[in-house]
Amino acid sequence: MPFPSANADKSRRQFLATAAAGAAGLWARPAFGQQNKAGGKSRLDAAVSRGLEWLKKGQARDGHWDVGGGRYSVAMTALAGMCFLMEGSTLREGKYTDQVKKAVDWLTAPAHQKPNGAIADSSAPGELDSYMHGHGYATMFLASAYGEAEGNEEQRKLERAVTRAVDFTAKAQTRKKHPLAGGGAVEVGGWGYVSAADRDFDEGSVTATQLQALRAARNAAIPVPKETIALAVAYLEACTTPQGGIIYSYTLSGGRAVNGEERPALTAAAVCCGFSAGDYSGTLPKKWIKFCKDRVPVAAGRVPHDEYTNYYFAQFLYGLGDDRYARMFPTEAKDSALTWSKYRSAMFPYLLEQQTPDGSWTSGYIGAVFATAVNLTILQLEKDQLPIYQC
């Protein structure tokens, strides 16, 4: 994209440098000390086992999950499948190999992965109006399964499926010109509920889902266009308010990230999904982390979007470990630092108390499959089975 002047181009480079700052440090694996000490671990293992068995029993014969009436089938299949990969099962071995394989086969079947690479269940209610969430989760799951596979025809099949899915994700991205204070503009790109070819709209939760999917693909050595990441990096920067939170939609806001319009859930997702390339100074993650610290309740009962929020909040706290926050904010009192141990101590007992006798979690607004998959993801982070969760 041409820029009107050297000063404008300089402003663009400064903008992108700021936007790219921050997540590489979060993506480098920290040292975590003694996180698997005795004391509740056997109870934790039992709870995870019951949850996995509940998901196993709920898988349809054809390999999918949904939340009733066929709704959200692609997203639920992917999120449930991730839980079995986190347990340590793969396409070739493990207690839940059959569940992983059936989920992979269902998502990659011609009925669900379209010729253009999109992964969607056309028979699911409302799917035509909102398929990008499911596509993102499915891409993440398939890339993670591919990364754990061995060299054979099944792996080659997965490689083709993920490559096509990534290609669709890149083409589905929106493009907007975001004006810069110093003159000129920078191109930004997010994602909405459907491809930009179907509707020119973007919003934060779908954008986070696509970024995490692209990172999983990159982890599996599937090529990801650098331009796609650069546009998304700029999008998140443009959606960050002076207070450090992420707004719902760049398009709906008219390109203005205004204090008071932030969404804590989206801000937690932004920390996790970060960026995939470049030199990072930590500017944006610091803003987002500070925003979340003051606004995300932990083990505090039902609040709007709490499963979604904790899905990402837990991931980035696990990435922080017990010492990274103090290094990022050296002037703050140590006892006020965000740490994984503090979160674990508060959240894990809370989640175990909420589990039903059959192994599921049923308090969510979307449904038991979603709530169970999210909580099993949180409770299994310490297993360190998948690169996508090793921030």
From TrEMBL:
Q: What transmembrane ranges does the database entry give?
A: none
The protein's matches in Gene3D superfamilies, at most eight in alphabetical order, are given as: 1.50.10.20
Q: Which domain of life is it from?
A: Bacteria
Which residues fall in a coiled-coil region?
A: none
Tell me which InterPro entries the record gives. Answer: TAT_signal (IPR006311), Terpenoid_cyclase/PrenylTrfase (IPR008930)
Tell me the protein's name: Squalene cyclase C-terminal domain-containing protein
Organism annotation: Frigoriglobus tundricola
